[in-house]
Amino acid sequence: xKDEIELFIGKELDTDEExxxxxxxxxxxxxxxKRGSGKSYSMGDIIEEVHDHTQGVVPLIxxxxxxxxxxxxxNEEQQNSLWDWGLQSRAYRVNLLVPGNPKERYGEEVLxxxxxxxxxxxxxxxxxxxxxxxxxxxxFDLNINKPMGITLYRAIRNLSRQQxxxxxxxxxxxxxxxxxxxxxxxxxxxxxxxxxxxDWGLFSDTYTPIWDRLDETSLNVLDLSVVDPGKxxxxxxxxxxxxxxxxxxxxKARKREELELQVDVPRVWLFIDExxxxxxxxxxxxxxxxxxxxxxxxxxxxxxxxxxxxQPSALxxxxxxxxxxxxxxxxxxxxxxxxxxxxxxxxxxxxLKTYIQKLDRVGQAVYVDDxxxxxxxxxxxxxxxxxxxxxx
Length: 392
Ligand SMILES: Nc1ncnc2c1ncn2[C@@H]1O[C@H](COP(=O)(O)OP(=O)(O)OP(=O)(O)O)[C@@H](O)[C@H]1O
Ligand SMILES: [Mg+2]
Fold this sequence. Notes:
Blueprint: E1 6-12, E2 18-22, E3 28-32, H1 39-53, E4 57-63, H2 79-84, E5 94-99, H3 102-106, H4 108-116, E6 120-124, H5 133-139, H6 147-163, H7 169-177, H8 184-198, E7 219-223, H9 234-258, E8 267-272, H10 288-297, E9 304-309, H11 317-322, E10 325-328, H12 334-341, H13 352-356, E11 364-369, E12 374-380
Parallel strand pairs: 3-9, 3-10, 4-7, 4-8, 5-6, 5-7, 8-9
Antiparallel strand pairs: 1-2, 1-12, 10-11, 11-12
The chain binds adenosine-5'-triphosphate and magnesium ion.
Adenosine-5'-triphosphate is lined by residues 33, 35-41, 310, 362-363, 380, 382, 387, 389-390.
Domain Helicase HerA central: 26-245
InterPro entries: HerA-like, HerA_central, P-loop_NTPase
Organism: Halogeometricum limi
């Protein structure tokens, strides 16, 4: 039997008993609550616990607000509270993954100050060959049955057949230009889009495995706040390419583990804040399929997931219903309470919404664990490292 790994999240409100999440195997945690109710803070609690207590599990944080880099510093503001809880503040090693060129994204002064504070900053670029022909068409919102979509699909498919991983944006442009089956107007419109995508500054010229950018000893924070959330779904693109690669590698690694061969691909615990942007309900997104697969099939490759959102009803129900741990902070909108109430289980003595009504302070949450069939109201523990999401 595997050793029990207990992730300390807080104390039960009535009894003061310590509450833990079992982290000894793959988990899927769902955190929700209205604005300012403590979701990002609680996510930080779990990140700290995963880093401190699980060996060979690497935290990767998808950070659309750009707030988790502050974990590189101790929580100095809540020293008293940490003291009351018998906890000590601490700083973490943070590997900040920046899509594109960090100097351009932050400016020179901010970047050097971040480095002075101990952050490691790694640029991540996307290999054009890591995006499928369908993915390319989705990116430009092209129908694969219409001329532009057909041309782009054909170009990517041919390049990957002929050159495998070894092609870049210039090669795609050249291939489209030389496509004898498409008419000039179609090609010109497509080339405009491809040229424009150069300005995103996201694509790499030579193939670099995205996996190499992760640091196993650090908290890996993917700062998406520097990427325009606009119409091309570029944030989703980055998440999708990264997660596809990680998932694929873990599936291969799992085979090796079963054969007792050496494995150099650690398990990943993915944390996604503002998750409704990546797995929206009722619409597709570039990252949705892989993230749903991650949560549904994650046990086998040994990957975990924690998602946080202020709008449970805006997060795909398939994702929500797969989560085996729920941390629900204060929530008031009827739609969202209804969505949560759908998750009520037989072992609960009353509906989830009656528990939610009892919450009255920031940092309190209804904690449901499907594995233990338990439900309680928890005061989440103070953070060891600095929380970056507070208001000014
Ligand atoms: N367990 C806790 N203990 C002490 N303070 C907390 C706790 N949880 C949250 N807070 C405080 O509440 C504030 C809001 O928390 P947080 O940023 O996590 O909210 P949120 O739910 O993520 O909000 P948003 O929807 O705006 O992202 C933080 O500044 C933090 O200081
Ligand atoms: Mg938040």
